[in-house]
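Structure in, sequence out. Go:
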């Protein structure tokens, strides 16, 4: 679970850290006219528009994070091997995202 939580946090931080370079807004105006931080799903949608190649990896990290960190009754994973495989896939997708967001060539 820790690897998944760290991956999700690293992706969110990387998006916020690169928001200006990606020409995306990290904050939005709420219904009361006050600025608030965008949710991770909104940030991912913005990045996926700017970098379409990252859409699948971004969604995979978010989905795995939500499933592992905020499980519903039907999402609970009882098998350690399955959990390890999910964590490894999440870390792999996180690496793809971080390398792309911090790449000087893009």
């Amino acid at each position: 679970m820790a690897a998944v939580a760290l991956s999700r946090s690293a992706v969110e931080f990387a998006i916020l850290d690169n928001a200006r370079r990606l020409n995306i807004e990290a904050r939005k105006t709420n219904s009361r006219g006050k600025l608030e931080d965008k949710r991770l799903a909104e940030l991912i949608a913005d990045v996926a528009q700017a970098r379409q190649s990252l859409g699948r990896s971004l969604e995979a990290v978010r989905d795995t994070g939500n499933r592992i960190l905020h499980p519903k009754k039907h999402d609970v994973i009882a098998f350690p091997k399955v959990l390890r495989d999910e964590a490894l896939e999440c870390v792999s997708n996180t690496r793809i995202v971080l390398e792309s967001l911090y790449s000087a060539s893009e």
